[in-house]
Specification:
Layout lengths: L4 H18 L1 H13 L6 H34 L3
Helix pairs in contact: 1-2, 2-3
Length: 79
Amino acid sequence: MGLSNAERQARWRAKREALVKAHPEVLEGEFLAAAERCGQLSEQGRHRLADRLQDLAMRHLWRSHELNKVATKVRAGEG
């Protein structure tokens, strides 16, 4: 018996999430492409996209702080 539409969507989302976790630049590229055509989005769509871009920027910032801590430990010979 075939999968229902909801099951197919859930599988697609799971695969996409796995890809994004393995290659975060894919998601970043999608957001940047969407930002280039933001004139075609509704006001609500632009706000959603802006929120997603801010979230992505914060994740990059947090990750950079984590990597900086590791670099500091390596310099000090603690790693």
